[in-house]
Design goal:
Structural class: mainly alpha
Distance between the termini: 18 Å
Helix content: 55-70%
Order of helices and strands: HHHH
Strand content: under 5%
């Protein structure tokens, strides 16, 4: 009784469904990160600093631009890497689900 649909076990089918559900979650996270990502040149440093909990009301615009360039060099606040990470994880889960279906 533990075997259904030929050589596929219940555990194997459960693994397939779990991998598909995780792939959907990663796909949503990739979509959300892509939607939220914008070129760093379009975002004022004051918004980035506000996200970090800093108050830049007293900082001159030239100093804000220097801090923005530093952040850009380090990739701080850039979501493009997150998009790629979630896409790769989604594809990996889909490949695992497909491989688990092969008898």
């Amino acid at each position: 009784m533990d075997r259904i649909l030929g050589s596929r076990t219940i555990e194997g089918m459960l693994l397939t469904w779990v991998l598909l559900a995780v792939a959907v979650v990663f796909a949503f996270l990739a979509y959300d990160a892509a939607r939220l990502s914008s070129p760093e040149t379009d975002v004022p440093f004051a918004l980035t600093a506000k996200g970090w909990g800093e108050d830049v009301a007293h900082v001159s615009l030239a100093e804000q631009e220097k801090r923005k360039q530093y952040s850009r060099l380090r990739g701080i606040g850039d979501l493009n890497q997150s998009v790629w990470l979630f896409v790769i994880l989604c594809i990996g889960c889909l490949a695992g689900a497909g491989y688990s279906l092969v008898p």
